[in-house]
Every structure is written in C-alpha cells, then in structure tokens.
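Tutorial handout. Part one gives the primary structure; part two gives the three-dimensional structure as tokens.
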Amino acid sequence: GFGSSFADGTVTIVPKVPWGWSISFQRHRVWELGIDLAEINAGAGNLVHFGLRVSSPAEGFTTHYPGDYLGDFSEMKVVRLANHVPYLIDTQASLGLTQNPLEVTQAIQTPDNALPLVAHKKTAARVYVYNRRSTFAQPVRVYLYGRKGDVELPGSPLAQHFFVPSALNPDRANLQHSANFAIPESWAEGGNVTFTAVLRTALGGESESAVYTIPFVNKEVPTIWTIPVNTGTASSPVLISDDQMALQEEFMRRVYPLADIHFVRKPWTAIGTTTVADTISVLRDYHSDAVLAWIFGVIFTGHSPFDLPTQVYGFCPSGGGISDPTWCFGSGHGFVARGYIGTSRELTMAHEINHNLDLDAAGAGTWGRHTPEGCDAAGPDPAWPYSDDDIQDVGFDPWASPDDPARRKVMHGDWPDFMSYCESGAFPTKWISPYRWNALFNRFATTATPFGIRDSRNAALIQQIENSVYYISGSLFPDGTGKLDPVVVQPGIPSGAGQEGPHSVRVLNSLGTTLASVNFPITFTGPEGDSLSRFEFLFQIPTQKGATEIVLTNGKAVLDRIVMSKAPPVVEMLSPNGGESWKGKQQVQWKLSDPDGDLLWTSLFYSPDDGASWVPLANRIKGDRLIIDFSVLPGGSAARMRAVVTDGFRTVSDDSDAPFKVARNAPVVTILNPLQEAVLPAGHPIPFAAEANDPEDQFITETPYIWFLQGQPFGLEPRFEATLPVGDYEVSVMVEDSDGMVGVAETVFKVRESIAILRIKRLSDGRVELSWPLNQPGILQSSSSPNGPFGILKVVPVV
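Part two.
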C-alpha cells in the first residue's frame, strides 16, 4: 500500500501566514508482512531465511530483495528469532476452548452473543480457554480469524500469547480468564463478519471453535447540542469545567449503542444567565426557538438548513440531573435535559437523556424510567426484566486500559445499570445492561450508509410545517391556578391531538365557540420523583380564522385568557440595518410601538447567510436593545437580524433592511482524552480524542486534527491510540476550518508504571520486599496455593 508518517519524514507541516498551515505528504511504498512461524516449522531461537519478490504486470517490472536470492540462497536475509522465557508446562494439563469460547462486545454482551453490535464502534473479542488437571497457569497461543464472505480480513489472524489460569470454568468477570483482542476498525465497517478462534498449546495440541457470524449494523449518528449553564453573571460566569463536560460526553459515547454522537457545543450566551432550577424552562424555550429558526431556513431555501438536535443538554455547575420526558409530561416535551453530577456521576447525561428518549407519550414509559430496586429511584420501569438493578451480564470497556488502576475494564454482573441510583463504589460508577442496550439500539434508526444521518426525519418534519401557528405555552401550579405566556404567531409544526386530561388550551371566536383545542394531563412529580413547583406546557395550534382569544381551562373553569388586541404592534430594526461590519460584542437595537399601549416582548434571530439559515439569540425580551457576542456566532458577508415582536397575541417582525458583515470565527477545539492532569499506565495504548466545533462549519470531521506531543507532530486523526513511556507530557491539537482559521486545545498528563507491576526482592535476612510504582495504597493477596484461599492485607507505601 501507500502511506506517510511523521516518523520517517514523509509528512511535513509548514506554517502559513497569518494563520493555518500546509501539510506535505511524500508518497512511498509500505509493505506489511506476516509470517506464521508454525507453518515453516520455525521456533524460538531458530534462524529464519527470507527474501521478497515484487511483481507488477501493470507496471512491467519484477524485483527481488535482496538481490537474486532465487538463484543463490546465500543471499537471503537471515533473522534469528528470540529465545522465549522457559515456561513450566504441565504435561497432564487438559487445555481447550470452552463451550461458548468467543464473546464479541462493545460494552455489554451475553455468553451467546445475542446482543446486536454497531458498525464503526470500538469492539473487543474475548476467547475463553479452560485449564483442567493443572494447578498452575499454562502457556498457549490463541488465534482469532476474521472473514467477510470468503475474503480474509486485514490482519487476520490476530494472535496472542496467553497464560490459561487454572480454572475449570473461566470467569467472564475476570479479565485474566480470557485472551482479549482489540478488533481492527476495518473488521467492524458494517455487514456480517465470521469469526473463528483457534487454540494451539505448547505441546502441539490444537482446537478450533465453531464459526460465529456477527453482524455489524450501521446506525444513525445523533446530534446533541450541549450548553454550559451560567448561574453567575455575564462578567463573572459560574460554569462547569471543560473536563467535566468531556468526561460526560465520552462515557455516553462508550455505553450507548452508537458509533458516535455529534456533540455540538453552544456557548452559555445561547440561553443567557439563569439558575439551576429554571434551566429546564429556559432550555425548552431555546429548543422551541431553534426549531423556529430551522423552519425559517426551510421556508427560505426549501430544504433543511441544519440537523435539528435530537436533544439539547444543559451542563450545570452544581446539582443533580433533571429531564423532560413525554411519558411524564405529555406531548411537546422530551427534547431537553440538564445536569451536573448526579448519582450516575460520569453517566449523568446518559441517564437524563435516556429518560427523554423513551417517547411513550401515550403511556407510562418503560425503559426511559429508573430501574426497580435502584436505591430509592422513583417511578421504576414496569417492564424491567430482572430481580434487581444490576446489569446481570459482564460489561466490558474496549477503551479502558487493563492496567489503569483508576478505571475498570470489566464490570461484574452486579454493577448497577446507569438508570439506577445505586453506585458500584468504583469507576465507572455504573454501566449498561443488556435490556437497556437493546432498547437504545432499537430507538436509534438503522441506516444504509456508515455514520448515516436521518435525512428522512427532516423530510418528514418539512412536510408538517404550517405557515402560521399559535405558539401557546404557560404554567399550572399546585394550588390550582394557571397562567398563559405571551402567544407568538409564526410558522410551525402543529403539536397534534394531545391526550386525555381535564386541562386544555382553547382558541375561541367572539361568540365563545371553540375553533381548536388541545387537552392534556398534568403532574407535579418529576421523572426523578421530585416535587415540582409548576407544570409547564407548550403547544403549537394552527391559526384559526375569526379567532379572538385563547384560554387555559381546567374542565369548565377558565384559569387564564389572552384576548386579541385591536391593533398589532409596530417594530423597526435599527441596528444592524445594513452595511455594518461587526465582530465581538455589539448592541442590537430596534424601535417598538403599540397603538393599544400593550406590553411587548421581542425574540431575536440572526442569519449569517442572507436568510438561508437562522440562529436563535434571545426570546421574551422586555426592551428595545440587547448586547450580543458575535465571536461565538457564525460569521458571514450577508448577515441579517430579525426581531419577532408580540403584544401577547398579535405578532409582527422586521429584518435588517440590507445585509451587514460579521467576522468569521475560529473553531473551538476540545481534547476529550487524556483529561487534564490525568495519570495513565505505561505499556498500554492511550486513547487520544478531540472534537472541533466551528461557528460556520459546525462539527468538523474531514480536516486533519494535527496533534503535537512535546512540541513535535504526533498524529492527524480526531481519535487514535499511542503507547508512551513513563514521563510527563504536554499535548496540543490544532484544527483548521474551511476559512483557514485555526483552533487549538492543550492538556498535560503523566504516564507512570502500572500499579499492577509487582516487584519482589529477597532480602539478606530472609524477608521479602514487595514494591510497586505510583506510590499508591494497595491490597496484597497472598496464598501458599495458586488457587487460594487468599489472605488479604492492606498495605501502605513507604516513601
């Protein structure tokens, strides 16, 4: 094949002025050869002779390396194979593959591989070997073959030297009881893969498993907008750290049955300052405005201007988590959630969004609820198939290092499911059960292409757009009262028929006749079992000819009403109104008047491309000006501003008279792994991961992610793995957007010897000294027999 790398100088980076860089690749040949030494009857310590012949009919050449070795064997290259460390081999040992010897997993799996797998998701395979009639571990060679049809996959067979512990039945919860393989990305690209495991013993015995056919299914890649919630002020923000957001995103990627999730980070200014308690209400308004902005773009261009988010999640700087599921609150909900670090810790976002993804609006919800027996978690799932809140089967994290003392790779069956309130007492705090894996797998769409986006969903929504609907929202309170928010009339997507319930919103004419209505039930208990101070609703009802008022009712009782005024308000956009060149923070100003003297509310929208797409900026502004930070918005040479104004019923709008210019902005780069100040084990691959969000390009995936380690070029992909020696490291990553602007992120981390490496030294006085790296406390287990029983002694390091 062809390839280039930093290591041999065939990739060079040249900085450009004033920003950016150019990357130069020199094309060169790369050969990878694999030789099965058993097939040529070669063993440890032997001399091996080889030569290479390359022939290409297309280019008409044949060459040999070295020289003409076919005519003179003395010209062949000679390699001496290393001597192996002598192993104690028990000739009485009975070694073989177990009855179910192969497990292919991405987070959780059953012994019979009954759980479906996702294409392009990091995957591991575990091969189980039994060791009978021996009291100590035995060396074997394990091979894993992969094929698609009759074609052997690249790198097949994977091979591993493995010591089989003395165990009649290997324990799936013990990482050392299986030969563990990282499945190459090319094997999990979609479609059926056939796996075969082969075992070869030190004494020449061989056994082969049955053929396992494992399908890898392409699933949609959902988009989730995340917003750090500012509970401080504009001048002194109180925000969650980037590392905390990255940790939540990374673990949601690990446990959800998806190849990836596009997390698009929005600035806190998208929703302004708020409180933790009001975050859900603010996020609902923001999501509603985002859909309206999307509709503006559809009406202008005839197609979807951007992918609507599956969810909008607010990262709070304190508190637990809250969601907004339809099975709790009815239709019109299910799109927003917020949280900091709840009982699910690093899986808090995964927990809250799981609540919302169960779209059982007409029922009571099942897998979107908590697990039963979940440490007092409220409202348990009536369909939960297990007797407790545990994951039941063995969880496996393909990303984790087996020697990382702070992060488990294997989760026992008694680990709590992440929809429980119980905690494992280790890291990760919780994991995913087979039941939840299946539910989420079925929730997300299967696609024909890798990393497919549900274009059909956008197309279906476009067909539902009405040119004019009432946006009717409000609140109901435990004391029986209720209040309507100011109504806005704009294009929208009607909410549907609603549900059975005593409460309703009704559109009436001057005679009091109902022209349209939506009924709904209410609750003052949230999905976490918490008491709510108010119940919020939001419906979109097509506008009705002859309508004069909108009322909120409970049975026959009218709780609140909004009556249409005699005359509409008047709005005029003053600044920007065309010709300006803006960047950074600027004041947007508009002129308001109302013949009836009504109180007016304004919503602001911004378009960087003359109306083809829109961004919501703020809503329900009581005033005629607002400071906007354009450094976090997409720039453009034909920008427009739109003010949508309501007097509570009648709605008007005005745009900038002519385009103005907004400076384009660099991408925002986030390093997801390694985290800041992380301590990682030496001798094992370290996952490096970053993502870049750009105001103009949104989620950047096609351009190179250029990594630097200690100032030297290190990698070109958003995600890769590398093994590093012990040391202190600085790593940075640069990403260039389509405008040639560069975003940079940096982090520092340490690599240390693993705590799993135990050094033993016999002292002159007969005592034995045990030592291990990292200066961490540990637990020493000792026994006079390889199979125990083990005594446990807590040990504290001496510095």
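Part three, for discussion. The two ends are 52 Å apart (CA to CA). The chain has a mean pLDDT of 87.
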